[in-house]
Amino acid sequence: MSEIDWSKAPEGATHYQHDICENWLKRDGNNIVSYWSWGAQRWYKYANSISSSNADGLGYISKATPKPVSEEWNGNGLPPVGVECEYRHEPGSDSIWFKCEIKYIIAGDGVAAWCPHLECEQWLGKGFIFRPIKSEKDKAVEVMEKLIDYELKIKGAYTYDPDIPHIIAKTLYKDGYRKP
Asked: Is the per-residue pLDDT at 98 higher than 70?
């Protein structure tokens, strides 16, 4: 199988399927799958909904390669298609973060995501927040940062710069310190 040149993809392409003539596919937020016709220079729909009896487009797209995320998502806005991240309901709550993989964006209002803990796709819209999955380094720095912040507060250093614990923790991690 050859490397996919995404620079040649038509505008809006979300997937590439090696096994069919019209290789470029697009899946929109309403689960409608289309294929690109180079001759007509336009998208044609395969299936109108996930419940179509002969949903060829959904069959093709399930075997297709999704467009890779071009740049790392920083946690702002909705995560792009293909990103593995965490979500939870209600910002500011202490609810549990769940892992998911973003499958497609729904009209800019939410996403459809594969949720391993549910073993199915779920729509996540208003009321949900997303964050990148923390690396082991990020987790270790966060733990050290909290400990440093705690130590500074109990020592009476209330007027210190709030970025100091993070700077110290990152430096300690970079220098090889791992246990808080």
From this structure: yes
Q: Please say whether the beta carbons of 111 and 105 come within 8 A.
A: yes
Contact 16, 7 (CB under 8 A): no
Three-class secondary structure of residue 176 per DSSP: coil
Phi-psi region of 107 (alpha: psi -120 to 50; beta: other; left: phi over 0): left
What's the CA angle centered on 146, arms 142 and 147, to 5 degrees? 120
* Residue 59 amino acid letter: G
- Give the Å distances, CA to CA, from 60 to 2, 12, 37, 136, 153: 18, 17, 15, 37, 58
What pTM does this model have? Answer: 0.47
The domain limits of the chain are 9-66, 84-132, 136-174
**pLDDT band of 54, cuts 50, 70, 90:** very low
Strand order in the sheet with 33-37: 42-47, 33-37, 24-27, 15-16, 65-66
For residues 125-132, average pLDDT: 86
**The pLDDT value given to residue 53:** 37
| End-to-end CA separation in angstroms for the chain | 47
